[in-house]
UniProtKB/TrEMBL annotation:
Organism: Kribbella antiqua
GO terms, molecular function: class I DNA-(apurinic or apyrimidinic site) endonuclease activity; damaged DNA binding; oxidized pyrimidine nucleobase lesion DNA N-glycosylase activity; zinc ion binding
Entry keyword set: DNA damage, DNA repair, DNA-binding, Endonuclease, Glycosidase, Hydrolase, Lyase, Metal-binding, Multifunctional enzyme, Nuclease, Zinc, Zinc-finger
Pfam families: Fapy_DNA_glyco, H2TH
Domain of life from the UniProt record: Bacteria
SMART domains found in the cross-reference section: Fapy_DNA_glyco, H2TH
Sequence ranges assigned to domain FPG-type in this UniProt record: 221-259
InterPro entries for the chain: FPG_cat, FPG_N, H2TH_FPG, Nei2_N, Ribosomal_uS13-like_H2TH, Znf_DNA_glyclase/AP_lyase
Domain Formamidopyrimidine-DNA glycosylase catalytic: 2-99
Protein name as annotated: DNA-(apurinic or apyrimidinic site) lyase
Hydrolase keyword on record: yes
EC assignment: 4.2.99.18
PANTHER family: ENDONUCLEASE 8
Enzyme class: lyase
Amino acid sequence: MPEGDTVWRACKRLDQALGGQELIRTDFRVPTLATTDLSGRTMLEVVARGKHLLMRMSGGVTLHSHFRMDGSWHLYKRGERWRGGPGHQIRAVLETSSWTAVGYRLPVLELVATDAEQSVVGHLGPDLLSPSFDRAQAIANLEADPERTISEALLDQRNLAGIGNFYRTEVCFLLGLHPTRPVASVDVAAAVDLSRRLMKANLRNGTQVSTGVDRPGQRSWVFERAGKPCRRCGTTILSASIGEPPRDRISYWCPGCQPET
């Protein structure tokens, strides 16, 4: 699932291409928006809120999308061949005089009033990548349920927005925390600060790296490395689903570096 840094980079590219430009054609291929025509409106800005993408347009409307597991927005120069996937996976097409933005496999695509954006993102905690990130509030949100596992608490977007499975897994490893450790036994401030630092560093990379080595197969300490030896101690990395459905996710950890007690 794309995480906050992936969505942030997508928003930056879209905003640079579409911001301030008039839409000359729109095509929506989802039932709820099938008859919607936004041509003639100006794309004011494209912003990220956690893992949510908000396209604000003139006339007080916002196109809200969420990537979930494999959604994406692709940008093409006018006349350029589209390469994001087969046509039946396209959910939206937005055209300006210079660019075409194509939304593929978007499970969430809806139009809301700009002054009612809170109806779709109001449940989110502080955004880790926001310049105005509220660190104290994020810490307080996490500490509000001291018996919850740190793994579940970090992934809950109501506590802090943007962190996904890669970051919560790598942060737990780097801090020596078994993913089932209760929040009450964790330095929550350190977990928040490290999460933000990693995500901000990766904004420049275009990839998600926690090891400092940006090469295939070497970017993570434990994420998606179940059955392989730990890069630090050689212990075999384990994995398991942690949390209650539908929020459960596969977590990875090293039993040597991240003892259960």
